[in-house]
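anyone seen this seq b4? input:
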Amino acid sequence: RLSIRNSSGSMEGKGMMMGGQEKKIGGAGAGGGRWEEERTGSYNAYPQNYNEPESYFCNETYCLCLVGLPGMGKTFVAHRLMRWLRFFHDANVRVFNLGNERRRQVGERVSPDFFDSTKEKNSKKYFQIRQKCVQDIKDFLVSDTNEPRIAIYDACSHTREIRSWLIGELKTNIIFIECIVNDPSLLKGYISEVKEKMPDYKGVKQNQVLQDYKERIQNFRKNYQPMEDPNLSWIKLVDNAEQLTLNRISGFFPGQIVNFLMNLHTIPRPIYLSRHGQSQYNALGKIGGDSGLTTEGTEYAKKLAIWLESHVLTGGGQNKEKDVCENPRHARLYTSTLRRTNETVKFVKHNVQKDGWVTLRQRQWRALDEIFAGVFDGMTYEEIAVKCPEAYKNRKKNKLTYRYPRGESYLDLIKRVEQVMLHMQRHKDPVVIVAHQAVLRVIYTYFMGLNRKEATRIPIPLNTVIKLTPYAYHTKEERFVLHEMENAGSGVDAPSH
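predicted toks r here
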């Protein structure tokens, strides 16, 4: 039974359809109504108090231990895993980087000989650093026994002796993730990122960085022992998961980790986010619905088609810095199934390339549809505030978990968008997504590494393309305003969820 407050302040009860006729429940004759409910068995004397959980994901404690030589992308894998687990599954995850602990104890600049295990003094000091880092992991894992926690240990762990020591120290579920890079171009890209992002090499010339880092790798390579133990749980990634080997991996959580890793790669490529052009409901201040575009919305659609041709398919247009991707003319186009996004891309050309690829071929995803407002679909926020003030206040209080009556919450939206993200993550070509504000908020917040709660308030303006280029350790953002609306101040950027 849904009660909606009318303009006079009284409550209007909506009936239930039973046997093709509307049957009033409650109302003025509340006693009679209650008696009728009890007589027919429809009265609920013991209602369930439902509270929306923020995560259904993992109910066990795990430590994911990275394995591999320096420069193999371990830190990239660790941080992407943490971002995914935190954002889409609200897991309590922390990365413990052995290099950061080493920098805290002995400083940023160390000789490559520091990593030479044949030098006893350096080997003892490095073991002490490892002990401190592992103790931090143990403290984290047991600090709250009521909440499952996931630690990610970002270190080389390059010998069987070290891995056996970790198992004995941690005494928890451990999955080893080994990163191997044989492709010279990938290895060059990783080392280039090291030069730009690793604190050890700030202000150091590139030729010195390359020489120092190669010596460091060689010191680890002397004793390197790959993952081969059949009694341990491990995942082996070769060349951006072009080859993936599993050993003793079973269960829901480990399976989800594999699903994520098999779609992961480090090749930068641009992702373009655009809301649909102004819709009729945007102009009226209404939420949801399936209305078409206004004249202004159609103007944006035309300009978007031209811009995609001149910027996306040319690898950056007039920008001096060109896009880094495999083939810009293999760009993909994703939209929702709703009318306003399909009308926004109707002017986009779909030229066939020499290799048979159809450029910007549209793929509709129901998972990219706008968050469903349920019984409030097609209403303005002002109408909701007047007719259902309690619902309006509750959503203001916590937009992340609030679910529209007979509709969706942001948590529901995050869950369905995850499947598109996993699919898109594997692509190495540009991806253009034309969707809705709430959906694009989720995608933007994830790629920028923000807390999932930020997804409820990040502004995604109309008539603007947001270009995100994910790199190994950061995401570059650019914005392009394609259309200035004549009716400024009148539904230009009507709030949408």
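The two ends are 24 Å apart (CA to CA). Residues 1-30, 489-493 have pLDDT under 50 and may be disordered. kinda curious what u guys think
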